[in-house]
């Protein structure tokens, strides 16, 4: 159990530093290139544990398994994390961190419609508070060029929630480490294909004439220098690779509900790191939004813990 809580602390620190780290290196890389590189590195870090997981479960991956990983990789890496990286480009790191932490709102909705999971009163209360928090942070009456960053963050959160709900259907079969690793691998392969397509001359010319120039002639190794390597190592090895490793280890050693503390602490910790490292000013509406999200997260966490405890007690009674 002690190892589980240490993993939670490490995962929280790494995930909370994600937006700050990406903001620091975003000027040195194309956003699509950075997404490709960090998830490829993350997959390599997870690969030894994933191969061990396959061996322990006596699973031999087949064509249909890779179809599942390709779908999950496309939703998570290609779609969600591309929106996420664009959000980092257009908005403050603190705003992206706070709003992206609201993805459980969309998980609840997708799980209700796709998995027929129950929605409790506490869930609705948490949902309403989170929506108020998002509106407060967006400050719709005073939105400026931050609009694109907020829009991209919400799209990233929605698609990441979709990835989580679809992935839940398969996680029992593969295990968290295996599923995450091969999702990252397949997503990176799909990103590589997009990069190659972006280099075709007529495709690059068409995209250059649009508002999405970052998708034109996407580099692979450009920007990797002695000065940029430490930042790339941090976002690839530590934030993406070890961050997910510690989070998945926390789930194994504690429970999914307890491990979710990572995402409940992140909205409060990430803006503090952005303030200290990036000198990002935290406005009053953002502070109010943070407080509301922490309240919403606390309601969800406490209710999930109680529900898990009751279910565990019920199972024990049935066994007796």
Automatic annotation (TrEMBL):
Pfam family, one: EamA
Domain of life from the UniProt record: Bacteria
Domain EamA: 4-138, 148-300
Major subcellular site: membrane
Entry keyword Transmembrane: yes
UniProt-annotated location(s): Cell membrane
SUPFAM superfamilies: Multidrug resistance efflux transporter EmrE
Membrane topology annotation: Multi-pass membrane protein
Residues spanning the membrane: 37-54, 66-87, 93-115, 122-141, 147-166, 178-207, 227-249, 261-278, 284-302
Keyword vocabulary terms for this entry: Cell membrane, Membrane, Transmembrane, Transmembrane helix
InterPro entries named in the record: Diverse_Substrate_Transporter (IPR051258), EamA_dom (IPR000620), EmrE-like (IPR037185)
One term under GO cellular component: plasma membrane
Family of this protein: Belongs to the EamA transporter family.
Protein name: EamA domain-containing protein
Organism this protein belongs to: Clostridium carboxidivorans P7
């Amino acid at each position: 159990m002690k190892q589980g809580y240490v993993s939670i602390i490490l995962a929280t620190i790494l995930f909370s530093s994600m937006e700050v780290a990406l903001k620091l290196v975003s000027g040195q890389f194309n956003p699509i290139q950075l997404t490709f590189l960090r998830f490829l590195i993350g997959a390599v870090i997870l690969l030894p544990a994933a191969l061990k997981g396959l061996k322990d479960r006596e699973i031999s991956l087949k064509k249909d398994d890779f179809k599942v990983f390709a779908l999950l990789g496309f939703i998570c890496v290609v779609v969600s994390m591309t929106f996420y990286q664009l959000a980092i480009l257009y908005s403050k790191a603190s705003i992206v961190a706070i709003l992206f932490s609201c993805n459980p709102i969309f998980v609840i909705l997708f799980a209700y419609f796709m998995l027929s999971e129950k929605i409790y009163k506490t869930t609705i209360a948490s949902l309403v508070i989170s929506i108020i928090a998002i509106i407060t942070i967006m400050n719709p009456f005073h939105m400026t060029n931050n609009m694109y960053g907020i829009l991209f963050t919400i799209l990233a959160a929605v698609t990441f929630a979709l990835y989580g709900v679809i992935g839940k259907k398969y996680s029992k079969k593969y295990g968290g480490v295996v599923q995450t690793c091969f999702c990252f691998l397949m997503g990176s392969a799909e990103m590589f294909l997009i990069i190659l397509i972006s280099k075709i001359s007529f495709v690059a010319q068409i995209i250059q004439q649009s508002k999405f120039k970052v998708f034109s002639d996407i580099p692979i190794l450009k920007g990797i220098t002695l000065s940029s390597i430490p930042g790339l190592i941090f976002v690839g090895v530590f934030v993406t690779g070890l961050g997910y490793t510690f989070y998945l280890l926390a789930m194994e050693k504690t429970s999914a509900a307890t491990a979710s503390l990572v995402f409940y602490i992140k909205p409060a910790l990430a803006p503090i790191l952005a303030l200290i490292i990036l000198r990002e000013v935290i406005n009053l509406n953002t502070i109010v939004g943070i407080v509301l999200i922490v309240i919403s997260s606390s309601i969800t966490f406490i209710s999930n813990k109680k529900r898990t405890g009751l279910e565990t007690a019920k199972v024990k009674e049935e066994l007796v």
